[in-house]
Design brief:
Belongs to the carotenoid/retinoid oxidoreductase family. By secondary structure, this protein is of the alpha+beta class. The protein has a domain of 54 residues. It has two helices and six strands, in the order E-E-H-H-E-E-E-E. The strands form three sheets. The chain has a two-stranded antiparallel ribbon with strand order 1-2. The chain has a two-stranded antiparallel sheet with strand order 3-6. The longest helix has 9 residues. The N and C termini lie far apart (43 Å).
Length: 101
């Protein structure tokens, strides 16, 4: 049989056909829980099983005195005491300092 992705099947049984499927779940969850194991090569499943998906993540909150830019081309003043508030998630492959990687 052809082992190419052809879409996804939703929990209610609805099938959505597609030539390409993207997952925002971790590789372990995507390939070990959402994909039928019999459709994947054994070596690939074994490698994904050992794949470390833990990720140290931090969030930086910043502010300045400019208007808020929503990223959609619109600019609006912030109604609070701060003129601009931004959150930026950061991820690192390790708890080591980048110079030690």
């Amino acid at each position: 049989s052809d082992k190419k992705v052809q879409g996804v099947c939703l929990q209610d049984g609805t099938e959505v056909k597609s030539r390409l499927v993207l997952s925002n779940a971790s590789p372990r969850h995507t390939f070990l829980e959402l994909t039928p194991q019999e459709d994947l090569p054994l070596e690939f499943v074994q490698r994904i099983s050992r794949f470390d998906t833990r990720s140290p993540v931090t969030k930086i909150n910043g502010e300045d005195c400019k208007a808020v830019n929503s990223g959609c081309g619109s600019v609006a003043p912030f109604s609070g005491s701060l003129k601009h508030y931004q959150q930026q998630p950061l991820a690192s492959p390790s708890m080591l300092h980048p110079s030690q990687l």
